[in-house]
Design goal:
Distance between the termini: 14 Å
Shape: globular
CATH topology of the largest domain: Rossmann fold
Number of domains: 2
Structural class: alpha/beta
Order of helices and strands: EHEEHEHEHHEHEHEHEHEHEHEHEHHH
CATH class of the largest domain: Alpha Beta
Strand order of the largest sheet: 3-2-1-4-5-6-7
Radius of gyration: 20 Å
Strand content: 15-25%
């Protein structure tokens, strides 16, 4: 088995934020002569990444045995969120060092009692824990007793090349392909349609803004209810595109991105929007404020406040050009994959197991 520097473990092959980041990071590290491989614990539904799945289910013994065998060739393993923590903690005892990449808001998902104790035990087996913004590190330290020296702040990131600033031709083509009006204001909600995303708030906010159309790019269990709500509150002004191959088409069609989530980590979709020069209106939760600077690169609102969300959308639409240009400058400086990969390379160099 060929030795590699870093094995990246993701929960599934589904094209979601943590999984996509792992693939992007592996590519960026390879350009720095840090070899790597990305493996998924199990297959995913819907849009999938071209990544090998180790088993049919994530946490069954057969999958964990394959994970242990494949990790034997790696100097370092990075577990990218969710079920990769228990999988790597169980399968890789005595194996290469493991870095757990915390992808959400630790304060929101810590739980209590046995759940918190279990997470604390699993994190104690990690060589290091990375968090996306400083306050998340404080939460990990306080809630799970991870020593400060094992916590590293490395933000989310996206390759700028995947998020070009759309010109007028790209805007026309995207809107035509998605069945959107050529000139009406368009707000885009991009991502999984689950309860925590509160896309219904985006429907209600757009319904309060005459002539504004809502593009919903993504799928999930909330979709039928959202379609019914949009038909009642904003008839003819909500467009459901399903899961798209990537963000570029939706961002080319949009004037503003909306993210009214109840909880978030550091959403990749907001970085993608910023790199594309599209301002965002988002709930001020988790690490969102690291990306969206209120009144400078977009607008922040309290979660669940539909009136404030509608007002924020109105402002962002009116100031789209200035906010979008500032968002692009900010995201290029802070959240582009290359400088973030350099920080991962430095961390890997300090933790890798000797050959």
């Amino acid at each position: 088995m060929t030795a590699i520097d870093v094995l990246h473990v993701i929960t599934s092959t589904q094209r979601r934020g943590a999984e996509t980041f792992a693939v992007d990071l592996a590519v960026a590290l390879a350009a720095r002569d840090v070899s790597g491989e990305v493996l998924a614990l199990a297959p995913g539904a819907g849009g999938t990444l071209d990544v090998e799945a180790l088993g049919e289910r994530a946490l069954v013994p057969a999958t964990l045995r394959v994970l242990r065998r494949r990790a034997a060739a790696a100097r370092l393993v990075v577990a990218h969120g969710s079920r990769t923590l228990p999988a790597c903690a169980a399968a890789l005892v005595g194996g290469p060092p493991v870095v757990y990449r915390s992808i959400g808001d630790p304060a929101a998902w810590a739980g209590r009692g046995l759940r918190r104790a279990r997470t604390r035990l699993l994190l104690s087996r990690m060589a290091a824990v990375t968090v996306l913004w400083p306050a998340a590190g404080e939460s990990v330290r306080a809630l799970h007793h991870v020593p400060a020296e094992r916590i590293h702040v490395i933000p989310n990131a996206v390759p700028a090349g995947r998020c070009p600033v759309p010109d007028a031709g790209a805007r026309r083509a995207a809107r035509q392909a998605l069945g959107l009006p050529a000139e009406a204001p368009v707000v885009a909600a991009i991502g999984a349609l689950g309860p925590e995303k509160r896309v219904g708030d985006a429907v209600a906010a757009c319904a309060a803004l005459p002539d504004v159309h809502l593009l919903v790019a993504g799928d999930g269990p909330e979709r039928p209810a959202l379609e019914r709500r949009a038909a009642a509150e904003a008839p003819g002004r909500a467009h459901y595109a399903g899961t798209l191959p990537g963000p570029a088409q939706a961002l080319a069609a949009a004037d503003v991105v909306v993210l009214p989530s109840r909880t978030e980590g550091m959403p990749g979709v907001l970085i993608e929007a910023g790199l594309s020069g599209v301002p965002a209106v988002a709930s001020n939760v988790g690490g969102v404020s690291q990306i969206v600077r209120d009144g400078e690169t977009g607008v922040l609102v309290a979660p669940g406040d539909v009136v404030a969300l509608a007002a924020g959308l109105r402002r962002a639409l009116a100031e789209r050009q200035a906010l979008g240009a500032a968002a692009r400058r900010h995201c290029l400086a802070e959240f582009e994959i290359e400088p973030v990969a350099a920080r991962w390379a430095d961390l890997a160099a300090t933790l890798e197991r000797a050959p």
